[in-house]
């Protein structure tokens, strides 16, 4: 495998020790959580009127649930949580910058027409 | 392509190809960012033709979202068994990734053909349709590339057997696959669940 | 198969994966297109030498406006910068090559084929005439029914892909392949500006990729992204284009800024002043570059909030830029300055770029910009920064590193003559354009009436272009003649500060017999001199048998894969059967990818 000359050799060792426990069992638990979250998203969407959920609450709830799924997949399935922080920094920087740029763009477009 | 041939020292300790995939993922944030932003700007600007509220089928889309999430689980398991050098399990879970991807593409095909044939929403029918197809079509193209990649990995493993456990390659392919899943997580929420927003 | 490819001759160049050869290929390609873009400029200026000229028709002139800009940006400055990234970055960080040598070759061939695709438009007389920025909805099929716009769209798409691939390669190389002891803050400033440039490339290119696809789709499939009649918005193109386009101008200038930093430090025999601040300024410029794009759109009715915020961000970006200017001046100040052609170009960069920056800061006020917009004042501004800035800096780099690449020094007499002809010609052409702009001369007009008060300055501008052309001719003579007749160069003819000067001129294929270990910034300098300037004997490169050093194999897959990708693009510009050509391209691309993946690297 690749070199062990990481920036934080001890941290990497701990992470790998931890990761050794993160076998199939943990992945299946995460899979179940992801399914449950998706199910909730679907329910909230379908029963919005029935439960009397205001639009703003629905929006922020759904965004938060997606964010949780996003962090779970990126952090654990993509291993960001246990890898060199540089990878997380690059990804988060790009993601936040993209969001900022496109919000700026949307605000600079005429409202309608 | 033995592991030893590729294992060389890097300044950060991160293998070059893995690093490159993360840089590509960072770049793709802007690719999909543009497509999503364009969709959100245009979704309600059609002059005529079907609207998203009229055509989206959230039940089917939720199923396809489950499917893609499960394919991500299959992917981590495939990588796990590759590292553990358990050949049959590695091949099985790699196959499940391919299957999950193909099922997802099947759902996409079903959705697109329903929109075109049943709802009269083609690529150039209206600006909502164009923006929708551009976004989900691009995502689907990424899934297709992923399916081809994982299929090649599966075939290579089937041919080479126990002498091929290149977990570095499988990890990099996995990162790509998970990212495509993550983009769908965003699309599912922002495009489909926010249809009335 | 790859191991048996010939090591000399044409095939060796077509299958090379050596970053040094690829750098040379980029340099030759970009210098060829410098001639093309220069000729386009000469013809444009000849048309404008006097009012009511009929030398060129309006259509042809518009075509030249488009192609001159597109060529100079995508086919000259960017690839010439890439030539420097390619040749120098591995040497400066003490690496044997880039992270992905075959991918590196792929970038070059994609670029070259894309450049050819773009210029094929001349051969079939369908020259794009929409400006280098191709504003919608002029690009719609109803306004441009021939394939001219498709040539532009696909040409830019393909060369953009080359840059995107290369940017990932260089980013990984710089972060991941530095020699022992070279922390980020011990890298030469050129490597830092290259790093920031790569980040700008891989983040901004996807935006224009999408925008170009939208134009293609509008033209080919009848979508209405930029058609107001279908609910689309014309201004959306401008946003997407400039979200790429503004970072793009920093992509154009940052490499030259890095080159100038290296040259000035060497020829002042002083370290670069304020190295750490220069690093942070480069990063700040890169980051802020994403926040200012709509200053190209002040007259589109953004609304007061957007206008004010973009204006403020634009003014803010002048700060790190100004800091760099002061640092360059401070580098020279109190130094033992040698005036060589290289240092003359570098010094002129500082002066000319400052002038361009001043007109730029004027544009940052939306009130003033409303008068400047679409006038020759803007043409003056961007030529001062891109030509007086980037191009001058790049020329400096050529003179500076030519000895390293070729083992000979370019003739200094001809070089200085070229420099002065360029300075005179450049300023004679572009300084008057400030006046022309203020006198109301709009951009992109192929002729003008004789009573506008524009005649004299236009005449001057054209004369400047002819002077520059003579300088350009001298440059090419010098470059090629010096290969044979130039004074032989030692390993370190300029007494440089960075690692590339510690190895032979030209370097061996493997770069370093033993990978260097550094302990400080400008480590090579400190191996030659103590802190109080006493000479030391630097360690010599150990003698090794080249056969013991493993080099990546040559490969023909990069050029084949590049052909496949270009084939896909070509389907959009042919009069008939385009779909089949694109499909054939896809097949070739996929097959080449597999061939590549299963080859022994």
Structure characterization notes:
The complex is a heterotrimer of chains A (113), B (197) and C (601). Chain A is an all-alpha fold. Chain A has helices at 9-21, 24-46, 48-51, 55-77, 85-108. Residues 1-15 of chain A have low confidence and may be disordered. Chain B is an all-alpha fold and 197 residues long. Chain B has seven helices and no strands. Chain C has one domain (9-598): Cytochrome c oxidase-like, subunit I domain (Cytochrome C Oxidase, Chain A), CATH 1.20.210. Chain C has a two-stranded antiparallel ribbon. Classes of the chains: A mainly alpha (113), B mainly alpha (197), C mainly alpha (601). Chains A and B meet through helix 2, helix 4 and helix 5 of A and helix 2, helix 4 and helix 7 of B.
Characteristic key phrases:
heterotrimer, B: 197 residues, mainly alpha, Four Helix Bundle (Hemerythrin (Met), subunit A), 7 helices, elongated, disordered N terminus, C: 601 residues, Cytochrome C Oxidase, Chain A, two-stranded antiparallel sheet, 17 helices, 2 strands
Brief synopsis:
The complex is a heterotrimer of chains A (113), B (197) and C (601). By secondary structure, chain A is mostly helical.
Which helices and strands occur, and which strands form pairs?
The complex is a heterotrimer of chains A (113), B (197) and C (601).
Chain A: H1 9-21, H2 24-46, H3 48-51, H4 55-77, H5 85-108
Helix pairs in contact in A: 2-4
Chain B: H1 3-6, H2 16-42, H3 52-55, H4 58-83, H5 87-118, H6 127-160, H7 167-193
Helix pairs in contact in B: 2-6, 2-7, 4-5, 4-7, 5-6, 6-7
Chain C: H1 10-14, H2 19-47, H3 58-92, H4 101-123, H5 148-176, H6 189-221, H7 234-268, H8 275-288, H9 304-332, H10 341-363, H11 366-372, H12 376-406, E1 408-409, H13 412-438, H14 455-485, E2 487-488, H15 523-528, H16 557-570, H17 578-597
Antiparallel strand pairs in C: 1-2
């Amino acid at each position: 495998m690749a070199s062990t000359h990481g920036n934080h050799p001890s941290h990497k060792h701990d992470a790998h020790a931890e990761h050794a426990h993160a076998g199939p069992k943990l992945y299946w638990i995460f899979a179940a959580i992801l399914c449950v979250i998706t199910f909730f998203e679907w329910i909230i969407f379908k029963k919005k009127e029935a439960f009397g959920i205001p639009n703003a609450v629905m929006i922020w709830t759904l965004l938060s649930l997606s964010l949780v799924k996003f962090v779970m997949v990126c952090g654990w399935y993509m291993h960001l949580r246990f890898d060199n922080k540089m990878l997380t920094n690059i990804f988060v920087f790009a993601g936040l910058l993209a969001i900022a740029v496109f919000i700026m763009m949307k605000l600079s477009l005429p409202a309608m027409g | 392509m033995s592991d030893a041939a590729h294992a060389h020292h890097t300044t950060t300790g991160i293998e070059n190809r893995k690093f490159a995939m993360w840089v590509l993922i960072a770049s793709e944030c802007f690719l999909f960012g543009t497509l999503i932003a364009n969709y959100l700007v245009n979704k309600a600007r059609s002059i005529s033709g079907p609207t998203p509220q009229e055509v989206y089928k959230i039940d089917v889309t939720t199923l396809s979202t489950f499917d893609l999430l499960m394919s991500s689980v299959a992917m981590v398991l495939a990588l796990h068994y590759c590292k553990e050098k358990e050949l049959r399990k590695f091949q099985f879970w790699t196959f499940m990734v391919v299957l999950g991807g193909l099922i997802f593409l099947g759902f996409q095909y079903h959705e697109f053909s329903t929109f075109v044939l049943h709802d009269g929403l083609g690529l150039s029918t209206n600006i909502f349709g164009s923006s929708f197809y551009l976004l989900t079509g691009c995502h689907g193209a990424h899934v297709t590339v992923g399916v081809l990649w994982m299929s090649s990995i599966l075939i290579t493993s089937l041919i080479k057997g126990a002498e091929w456990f290149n977990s570095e390659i499988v990890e990099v392919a996995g990162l790509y696959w998970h990212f495509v899943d993550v983009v769908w997580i965003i699309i599912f929420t922002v495009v489909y669940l926010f249809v009335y927003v | 198969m790859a191991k048996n490819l010939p090591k000399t001759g044409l095939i060796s160049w077509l299958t090379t994966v050596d970053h040094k050869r690829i750098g040379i290929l980029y340099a030759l390609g970009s210098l060829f297109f410098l001639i093309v873009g220069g000729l386009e400029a000469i013809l444009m200026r000849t048309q404008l030498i006097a009012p009511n000229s009929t030398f060129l028709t309006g259509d042809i002139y518009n075509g030249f406006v488009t192609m001159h800009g597109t060529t100079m940006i995508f086919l000259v400055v960017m690839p010439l910068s890439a030539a420097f990234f390619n040749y120098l970055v591995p040497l400066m960080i003490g690496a044997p090559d880039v992270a992905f040598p075959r991918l590196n070759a792929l970038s070059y061939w994609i670029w070259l084929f894309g450049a050819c695709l773009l210029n094929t438009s001349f051969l079939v007389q369908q020259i794009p005439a929409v400006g280098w920025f191709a504003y919608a909805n002029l690009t719609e099929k109803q306004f441009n029914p021939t394939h001219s716009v498709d040539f532009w769209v696909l040409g830019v798409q393909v060369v953009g892909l080359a840059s995107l691939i290369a940017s990932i390669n260089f980013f990984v190389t710089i972060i991941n392949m530095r020699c022992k002891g070279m922390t980020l803050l011990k890298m030469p400033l050129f490597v830092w500006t290259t790093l920031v440039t790569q980040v700008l490339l891989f983040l901004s290119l996807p935006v224009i990729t999408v925008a170009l696809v939208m134009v293609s789709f509008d033209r080919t499939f009848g979508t209405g992204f930029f058609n107001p009649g279908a609910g689309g918005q014309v201004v959306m193109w401008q946003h997407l284009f400039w979200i790429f386009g503004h970072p793009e101008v920093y992509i154009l200038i940052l490499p030259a800024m890095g080159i100038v930093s290296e040259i000035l430090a060497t020829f002042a025999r002083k370290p670069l002043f304020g190295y750490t601040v220069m690093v942070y300024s480069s990063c700040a410029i890169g980051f802020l570059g994403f926040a200012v794009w709509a200053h190209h759109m002040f007259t589109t009715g953004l609304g007061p909030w957007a206008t004010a915020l973009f204006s403020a961000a634009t003014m803010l970006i002048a700060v790190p830029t100004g800091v760099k200017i002061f640092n360059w001046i401070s580098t020279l100040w109190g130094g033992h300055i040698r005036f060589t052609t290289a240092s003359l170009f570098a010094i002129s960069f500082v002066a000319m770029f400052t002038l361009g920056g001043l007109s730029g800061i004027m544009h940052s006020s939306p009130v003033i910009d409303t008068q400047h917009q679409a006038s020759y004042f803007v043409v003056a501004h961007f030529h001062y920064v891109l030509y007086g800035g980037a191009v001058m800096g790049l020329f400096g780099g050529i003179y500076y590193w030519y000895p390293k690449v070729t083992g000979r020094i370019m003739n200094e007499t001809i070089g200085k003559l070229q420099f002065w002809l360029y300075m005179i010609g450049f300023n004679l052409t572009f300084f008057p354009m400030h006046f022309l702009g203020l006198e109301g001369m709009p951009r992109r007009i192929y002729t003008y009436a004789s009573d506008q008060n524009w005649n004299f300055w236009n005449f001057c501008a054209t004369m400047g272009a002819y002077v520059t052309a003579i300088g350009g001719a001298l440059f090419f003579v010098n470059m090629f003649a010096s290969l044979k007749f130039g004074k032989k160069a030692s390993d370190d003819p300029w007494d440089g500060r960075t690692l590339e000067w510690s190895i032979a001129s030209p370097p061996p294929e493997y770069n370093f017999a033993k990978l260097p270990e550094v302990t400080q910034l400008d480590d090579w300098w400190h191996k030659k001199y103590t802190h109080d300037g006493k000479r030391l004997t630097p360690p010599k490169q150990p003698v090794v048998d080249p056969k013991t050093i493993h080099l990546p194999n040559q490969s023909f897959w990069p050029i084949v894969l590049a052909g496949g990708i270009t084939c896909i693009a070509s389907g959009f510009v042919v009069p008939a059967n385009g779909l089949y050509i694109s499909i054939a391209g896809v097949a070739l691309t996929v097959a080449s990818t597999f061939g590549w993946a299963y080859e022994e690297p």
